[in-house]
Amino acid sequence: MSAEAxxxxxxxxxxxRPRIDLRRLGRVALRGPVSRDRLPDxxxxxxxxxxxxxxxxxxxxLRRAYVLAESSHRGQMRKSGEPxxxxxxxxxxxxxELGAETTTLTASLLHDTVEDTEVTxxxxxxxxxxxxxxxxxxxTKLEKVDYGAAAEPETFRKMLVATxxxxxxxxxxxxxxxxxxxxxxxxxxxxxxxxxxxTRDVLIPxxxxxxxQALKTELEDLVFAILHPEEYERTRALIxxxxxxxxxxxxxxxxVRHTLRDAGISAEVLIRPRxxxxxxxxxxxxxxxxxxxxxxxxxxVGEDSDCYAVxxxxxxxxTPVISEFKDFIAAPKFNLYQSLHTAVVGPGGAVAEVLIRxxxxxxxxxxxxxxxxxxxxxxxxxxxxxxxxDERADPTRPGWLSRLLDWQESATDPDxxxxxxxxxxxxxxxxxxxxxxxxxxxxxxGASCVDAAYAQYGDRxxxxxxxxxxGRLATxxxxxxxGDTVQLLLAQDTASGxxxxxxxxxxxxxxxxxxxxxxxxxxxEAKPDPETVxxxxxxxxxxxxxxxxxEPQATAPARTRSGPRATGVVVDGGGGPVRLAGCCxxxxxxxxxxxxxxxxxxxxxxxECPAGAAMQGIGRAPVxxxxxxxxxxxxxxxxxxxxxAESFGRPRLLADLTEAIATAEAAIVSATVEPPSxxxxxxxxxxQLPDAAGLPALMRAMREVAGVYDVSRAQHPAPAG
Length: 721
Prior knowledge:
six-stranded mixed sheet; 4 domains; alpha+beta; Ubiquitin-like (UB roll); Hypothetical protein af1432; five-stranded mixed sheet
């Protein structure tokens, strides 16, 4: 393991060269401008790093930007005693090493000129164009973020808007913060702690979401050293003690190289040391650290298919730890990250974690959106509020950022916005769920179907009534897991709204703010609590069709014990009355069976009725029963049937069901609504139909009512006699 792992600044600097001596750069900068045909020595390192990623880059604009920055900042000094120009130089070098394009580097050199010197935005626009002006203006708006807790909410709202319009603004801000954190030692301890906490709570999570891991990991270590100095020193000592040529990972790395070489796979196998915070987390999780816990193997290949070839060889030639396998190539993380993760057992039982990715994937994993070049190849206007028309289709505009921009517009209270932003950024893990239409949703771990509904449909999710998760019906409160497939079910009634109880199941700011906003705007129209329904309460009877809606009704039991005299049924050897069983309400062409009950009457059931099977089980002998020929039946007798509608609770559900029943020319004899269970409601209707032939059409009409997911014939158990 390399000894550079003991250095908290190593994650970024190991990409190219040791940290530049800023005091030396400052002395060079003080020499003043140079001739037009020569690049200033002070930005030579920036140019070298830039050309390593962009060999054909035109450095002329960088020279002009440096000359303006140096002249405008001349005479200004940092608290560390260095000339101020060393700060924009260091920020620009950080971005150059990450692979930022020329426009970003130009804006980075100028990012403090408008805030701290006499240079104006108009001058920047005149000399460098609208795009550089736009970026400088965006960074300028963020400069007061560190000063005073009261200013933080509104400042970060501006930061979010600026980031959404152009992610390069946040890239510059993150590099700016990294250099400031590197030089924070000159400040008072209390100010160091305050800046470190803001960095921890907001900027590090934003770096994670933008995929800029090189910045994120070094910021984490610098914050760790300030806020937890004792733990930091303990971790540093552990890392230093584990370094050396005989580290267990070296042996496994050699074995992996030989394995891939023998398989004919061209790959670069590196040892990637864990940074301080990562080692600290592993130690807290496992207690004692293993020799292989101080780093991971990184295998770099040329093509995506090579990644899977490497995986196959490793799982064939080593014992894999299957629980550690994750495929972030087929399903990339929300921050553009792609890689295969696995773990294998090496000599002596040592377990090594392995990352497998292409060189391109590695570049994006390190630098995130910074590595993707200019996200907006078309012209920028001079108006910062103008957003590129295709930004939502741009890969540099991650889905989480679009969601944050959407809900920040709805969060009118700055304090609510600030609290919600920090809560959202505190989500350290995100899951991917698949939509049935082929899309995907990125959600925080612990998100429910409510969150998924608002992520997919926005305000249309107010009408959500349920979901199917992996093909099975589920309530909106169902918590989703990584890889689930979800189909959200919406009501046709666009006037309906969310229930206050949904707030108990949401994890995303978009859902919480949308629900709260709707409930505030509609205090008298919110969905009823799941423990009540629009039938007047659980278990209450529904008025018969045609009765005035608010007229008091006598409660009729759902489990009708007997039906009308069955003049259309013939039973074998029976002279007594014949009744259709209320438990299964048979209608033609159901197959029938009868049972003699007290008084000599015969109760006729559908043949598959469980009540009939129960009576046979206690020794009751069945009697044959069948429908009479059409000539022997009364044409106007109709038929009675009991149907059960399973549905998700929502306003107007009862009204829509009764309308569907009435449209089918069926009369409601009685109905009940059972107490809801997990937002599901069961309605039981005993209906009188003009003709049994209309039953299939009636059941179809009821199933088409929004929120109803099943309608079936009743199977109530009937008494034995």
